[in-house]
Hints:
Layout: H1 9-25, H2 30-42, H3 46-58, H4 62-74, H5 78-91, H6 93-98
Helix pairs in contact: 1-2, 2-3, 2-4, 3-4, 4-5
Amino acid sequence: IARNLNLGTTYTVRAGTYMQKALQLKPDDLEANLLFGIMLSESGGFKEGRKYLDKAVSMGNVEAEQSIAQADLLNDNRTAALKRLRTLAAKHPCLLEAMTSPFCSSV
């Protein structure tokens, strides 16, 4: 995430180190698994990041599902990404509707 802010590799490495420490202290922390998974995936560590994103998904996090789809796209796995996004849209119809309307009529 530090990488996305153009803070340089020093801060990106430091952020990764802190995330690893957080996960050592609380391995089942939803937010730490999500953020570390995103961080690794977005920097090209798709396989390593996937472990943390899968853990966040198992805790019910929808954003982790979206991040896995994005990682699949970045890893040239369009078929898997589309399948995941279609399944996610079927389970959570308000996600798609939220992009165009502030209210979900599917509830």
